[in-house]
Design brief:
CATH superfamily of the largest domain in chain A: Cell wall hydrolase SleB, domain 1
Order of helices and strands of chain A: HHHHHEHHHHHEEE
Number of strands of chain B: 13
Radius of gyration of chain B: 30 Å
Number of helices of chain A: 10
Radius of gyration of chain A: 28 Å
Distance between the termini of chain B: 64 Å
Order of helices and strands of chain B: HHHHHHHHEEEEHEEEEHHEEEEE
Number of domains of chain A: 2
Number of domains of chain B: 3
Oligomer: heterodimer
Distance between the termini of chain A: 102 Å
Shape of chain B: globular
Largest interface: A-B, 76 and 80 residues
Largest sheet of chain B: 12 strands, mixed
Largest sheet of chain A: 3 strands, antiparallel
Shape of chain A: elongated
Chain lengths: ~260, ~450
């Protein structure tokens, strides 16, 4: 009799014991639904960063824009959070920090779509952002000292000048523009160099206004980030169509595709 | 009947065509005149600014009070930049006028350096006074030469559009008066070797990097370079490699190699130094697929790549994700001090973690064994130099290159004011605020607007 009774008690007990891990699994699934498994570090972009910023803003650590770019503002917010919650302060968002964030904050996944569409949702989590409420628009990494528009303008010039050239030839053309900006015998701005009369044939004949492809943009980014396949050249020319005799007197560095690069 | 209709139609045709042609001609003329006027404006302004420049430099010579000298030199600096701006708007790019442009830029730098200096503490030296005197003399010569050209342009109604045409058709001898005038000016400037610019300006004029400095190793042949590259990139020894050498007269001495890999439709291009066959830059060109790895994993791939190639003690100083690429800047670290001039860049494809690019010219030309001094000043003393509204978030020691292109040991502070982040370098020797940078790096994506 005693045994039977015990059995009756056993069943809910077993069910109850089974439920505990099951629930944690469910709970865990819920978490994994949001952040992906990656360790998020400074400079990253994407949905995980949007979630990170939204969650940090929810508890008042992050006051900037929710833009999906892990910039300096996000970096300091992460470090402050790590400090406050007793984690190692390294600015890296790993599984431990994600778990703490999940526990401490709420996240509405619809904010992702809103940010990606460029809409500005209302204040998130009731904190008032640094510049009068939260502004959420998608952001982008840009190399220090250059705006996206500078990069686009250069991509236009590179595409107009060298779209048929090998990739490193396109990077080299972008590098020449940057070398000229640095040089004392040329204008000091990207637009000044590009639009200097007679400097680039693509500017004179209007080919600069063709829509550049992604390759040209990538080439410009590489040049801006430090790559210089031209060998520090200030000039280049196509030997088949060059009209100036003077250009031949410059010390030549190398030839890439159809262009000869010189000092 | 039909005949007269035909004649009538033709007549109307002829009249309307000629009217259309006349309109087109008028429009074309309007555009040409507009372009010509822009050139004329830039040219006459150039003359005006060079005139004013000569006058200003001249008046600084007679100044005794330091309180007057600084603003006057600041004015000189402004005028040189105006004149440079004018030159930039004239069609002179493919013509020898670069010596003059360089000269203007040097005057600008020289006057700026002196103008911002505390002249009570460090008055104008005799050398500098002498430099100013010579600058005045040369500015007068340039002014006179340009005035001659200006007078001819006005007296003979010379057009800058003709300069464009003359430069475009190189075959016929260039007997364009304006071109000749500018050539004369540039010839003259070429002879100005007597100006002592002082150490600052000379250094700034040096090329960005000099590949013959500091690069270790013996000069290698093309075959040796090929072998080194096969070893470096770990490719098959019978891979098809194109190799060319840079021009004999170029300051940049390197071999350029190109390796096709038909298997995965990619190609690798790189330059290696002639001395020691060190890669200067590598670029891989292939289609990058969907992002599969995180920026953090990419960072470890980049780190592993550097380790594998014996570039040790490097720490990440910057990391950024651009669509499907992760780009990292590493700097050398010596005794926990970041040596910012010794930097390399690594680009990692985020689809499979391949190293898509490597760039090391700064590391190659700057890296050396350094004796780092102990900071003469304490951290607290350095901290006291910083603007009070900056909230310090992170700090350390770092070596940077200052305005005078010298390597200096600094206390490095990262701090914020509201939502902006700043990096401030305070010289550890004399507490000079060497550099204050506002850290940017993100911008609204205007494509999505």
């Amino acid at each position: 009799m005693m045994r039977k009774l015990f059995n009756i008690f056993k069943i809910p007990l077993i069910i109850g014991l089974l439920c505990v891990p099951l629930m944690t699994v469910l709970d865990h699934n819920h978490e994994a639904d949001a952040f992906s498994n990656q360790v998020i570090q400074k400079g990253a972009t994407g949905d995980d960063v949007i979630e990170l910023q939204a969650r940090l803003q929810y508890i008042g650590f992050y006051k900037g824009k929710i833009d999906g770019v892990f910039g300096w503002g996000t970096y300091w917010a992460v470090r402050n959070f790590q400090h406050e919650f007793g984690l190692t302060v390294d600015g890296l968002v790993g599984s431990e920090m994600k778990a703490k964030l999940n526990k401490a904050t709420k996240y509405d996944p619809s904010i992702k779509q809103k940010v990606n569409k460029g809409e500005s949702p209302k204040n998130y989590g009731g904190t008032s952002g640094g510049d009068g409420g939260t502004k959420a628009t998608q952001g982008k990494n840009t190399p220090a000292g250059y705006s996206q528009n500078d990069i686009k303008l250069m991509a236009n010039a590179v595409y107009g000048e060298a779209r048929g050239e090998p990739y490193e030839g396109q990077v080299a053309v972008a590098a020449v523009i940057l070398n000229r900006v640095q040089s004392s015998s040329f204008p000091n701005t990207v637009s000044g160099v590009i639009f200097e009369p007679r400097a680039f044939t693509a500017v004179s004949d209007g080919q600069i206004w063709l829509t550049p492809n992604d390759r040209a943009k990538e080439a410009v980014l590489d040049a801006v980030n430090g790559w210089d396949p031209s060998g520090e050249a200030l000039y280049y020319f196509n030997p088949n169509t060059a009209t100036s005799g003077w250009i031949w007197t410059r010390p030549q560095i190398k030839r890439i595709g159809k262009h000869i690069f010189c000092e | 009947m039909i005949r007269s209709i035909l004649i009538g139609a033709l007549a109307i045709g002829v009249v309307s065509t000629s009217y259309w042609g006349y309109k087109e001609h008028q429009e074309k003329n309007a555009v040409l005149i507009n372009a010509e006027n822009n050139y004329q404006r830039a040219f006459h302004e150039l003359n005006f600014h060079v005139d004013a420049l000569e006058e200003k430099i001249g008046s600084t010579l007679a100044m005794s009070s330091r309180a007057r000298l600084s603003p006057a030199l600041a004015e000189v600096w402004r005028l040189t930049s105006e004149a440079q701006n004018d030159v930039g708007q004239l069609p002179l790019t493919l013509m020898p006028f670069n010596k003059t442009e360089e000269f203007l830029s040097n005057i600008g730098q020289f006057s700026y350096r002196v103008a911002v200096r505390d002249l009570d503490e460090k008055p104008l030296s005799d050398d500098e006074y002498d430099t100013l005197k010579k600058l005045h003399k040369h500015a007068t010569e340039i002014k006179n030469e340009l005035r001659k050209v200006q007078a001819m342009v006005i007296n003979h109604n010379l057009r800058w559009m003709d300069v464009e045409l003359a430069l475009a058709s190189e075959k016929q001898a260039q007997d364009n008066t304006i071109i000749d005038g500018f050539k004369t000016v540039d010839k003259q400037v070429e002879g100005y070797s007597d100006v002592n610019w002082g150490p600052e300006v000379t250094q700034l004029n040096e090329k960005k990097e000099n590949l013959s400095n500091n690069v270790l190793g013996e000069k290698v042949t093309e075959d040796e370079a090929k072998k080194a590259v096969i070893d470096y990139l770990d490719i098959e020894s019978d891979a098809k490699i194109d190799i060319t050498s840079t021009g004999e007269k170029a300051g940049y001495q390197a071999y350029s190699l190109s390796i096709e890999n038909p298997k995965n439709k990619s190609s690798v291009n790189l330059d290696v130094t002639k001395k020691g066959a060190h890669p200067i830059w590598i670029l891989m060109d292939r289609k990058i697929g969907k992002q599969k790895i995180s920026l953090n994993e990419a960072a470890s791939k980049a780190e592993a790549f550097l380790k594998e190639h014996d570039i040790s003690n490097m720490v990440i100083s910057e990391s950024s994700q651009y669509d499907k690429m992760g780009v990292f800047t590493f700097v050398y670290q010596q005794d926990d001090i970041n040596i910012y001039p010794d930097a390399v860049h690594v680009k990692v494809a985020l689809d499979n973690g391949d190293i898509a690019g490597y760039e090391s010219i700064e590391y190659l030309t700057n890296h050396q064994k350094r004796e780092l001094p102990k900071p003469a000043m304490s951290r607290e003393e350095a901290l006291a130099q910083i603007n009070e509204s900056v909230q310090i978030m992170e700090e350390g020691l770092g070596v940077i290159r200052n305005d005078l292109n010298e390597e200096v040991l600094c206390y490095e502070f990262m701090g914020t004011i509201d939502n902006e982040t700043y990096r401030i370098f305070i010289n550890a020797e004399n507490l000079r605020e060497e550099k204050v940078e506002k850290m940017d790096g993100t911008e609204t994506n205007y494509d999505e607007l």
